[in-house]
Amino acid sequence: MITNDILYVGVDDKDIDLFEGQFVVPNGIAYNSYVILDDKIAVMDTVDKRKGAEYLANLEKALGDRFPDYLIVSHVEPDHASSVQLFLEKYPQAQLVGNTKTFQLLAQYFDLNFDNILTVKEGDTLLLGKHELHFILTPMVHWPEVMFTYDSYDKVLFSADAFGKFGALGAKEDWTCEARRYYFNIVGKFGMPVQTVLKKAATLDIRIICPLHGPVLSGDLSKYLDKYNIWSSYEPESEGVFIAYASLHGNTRDAVLALKEMLLSKGCPEVVVSDLARNDMAEALEHAFCYGKVVLAASSYNGGVMPFMEDFLHHLKGKNYQKRTVALVENGSWAPSANKAMTEILSQMKDITILDSPITLRGVMKDEDKKAFEVLADKLCIS
Ligand SMILES: Cc1cc2nc3c(=O)[nH]c(=O)nc-3n(C[C@H](O)[C@H](O)[C@H](O)COP(=O)(O)O)c2cc1C
C-alpha cells in the first residue's frame, strides 16, 4: 500500500537475462503498476507481458469485486505496455488514457479498438472522486509519448521511467548506484528534456514518487531530485578519476594500474578502473559520467584502437557525453594509432578537454614512461 487509496500491483522479473536486450540486471527488474481506488478507479500502466498473468492476479486482488474505469498509459515501451491488450481483454469497459502520441505508438504494437479512449494534453485533469489527476507531458524522457501524472490529493507523482532503477523490489542494494546506471544508459541522452521536467516538478508539492521501475520514493525527496539535476545537467557528481582501458596483452592494463597507485599516493580521493573487455560496459559508462576526469587507455589495433574502446566511445557519444577532462594513453608496437582514433571520436563530443602530452607506450612500461605517468598523475590531481 502506497497511501490509503493507492496500491502497488507491479511484479518483479528475476529471470530476465538482459533488460532491453542489452543491460545485465544481476538483481532483476521491477515492472511497477499502481491502482488508485476512488469513486472511479484508475490503473497506472501495466507491465511486461513476460509477467502478464502474475500482474493480472495482483490487479484482481487489489480491485476486489470492483472494475477499473481507466488505464492510464504513461509510457508505451513494451516493458510497461505489452500487457495492455491482456488488460483490456479482462476489463473491456476500462477507458484508455493517453496523449496523441500514446495512441499512435500503441497502434504499432496492438490491433486495438480505439473507440474507448481519452486523449489528454498538458495540464488536463481527470477527477476520480477525491483524487484529481493532472497530466504533465514529458516528451523524450525518454520516448516521445511519455507523460507524468500528478495526484494532487495524495501528492503523488507517477513519474514513468524517471527516478527508476534496475533491480527487483527488495533487492538489497544502494538506490543511487543502480539508478545512476539506469539513468545514463537509458535516459542519459535526454538531459535537456529532463531539466525541463524537473522545472515543472519544482512547482508541485510532491510527497511520494511512484516510478515504473524500482522502489517507491518517499521521505526526503530532495536527494533524488538533486541527483537528477546533476545527472541531467551533465555535471560531474564525484571528485576522483575514472580509468577505462582495453588491453590485448596486459601491458596497458599494468600501466594504468600503476597510474592508479600514483594517483592515490598523490591524494586523489577516488580512482575507479574498468576493463572494457571484461567489466559491464553500462557500468563503465555510468562511471565516465560520475567523475569529471577520465583516462582512456588502449592498445593500437589494425591502424585504429582496440574495438572495446571504440565501442565505449561510441556509447559515450550516443549518450551526449560532455563537460569532461580526458587524458589519453595508447600502446602500439610499430605504428601506434589508438590515441588518434580515440581523439577522432572525442572531437565529435561537446566540451571535452583532452590533456596535452598524451602518452604512447611501446609494449611494457619503461622507466621513462613512469615519469610521463607521474606528470599525468600530477596534472589529474591539480586540474
Ligand atoms: C590484431 C592486432 C592488431 C594490431 N595492430 C596494431 C597497430 O595497428 N599498430 C601498432 O602499433 N600495434 C598494433 N598491434 C600491437 C599492439 O598494439 C601491441 O602489442 C601493444 O603493445 C599491445 O598492448 P597491450 O599489451 O596493452 O595489449 C596489434 C596487435 C594485434 C594483435
Automatic annotation (TrEMBL):
Organism (species): Parablautia muri
Cross-referenced CDD domains: flavodiiron_proteins_MBL-fold
Gene Ontology molecular function terms on file: electron transfer activity; FMN binding; metal ion binding; oxidoreductase activity, acting on NAD(P)H
One Pfam match: ODP
Name the UniProt record assigns to this protein: FprA family A-type flavoprotein
PANTHER family found in the cross-reference section: ANAEROBIC NITRIC OXIDE REDUCTASE FLAVORUBREDOXIN
Highest taxon listed in the record's lineage: Bacteria
Membrane-crossing residue ranges in chain numbering: none
Family according to the record: In the N-terminal section; belongs to the zinc metallo-hydrolase group 3 family.
Domain Flavodoxin-like, first and last residues per copy: 241-381
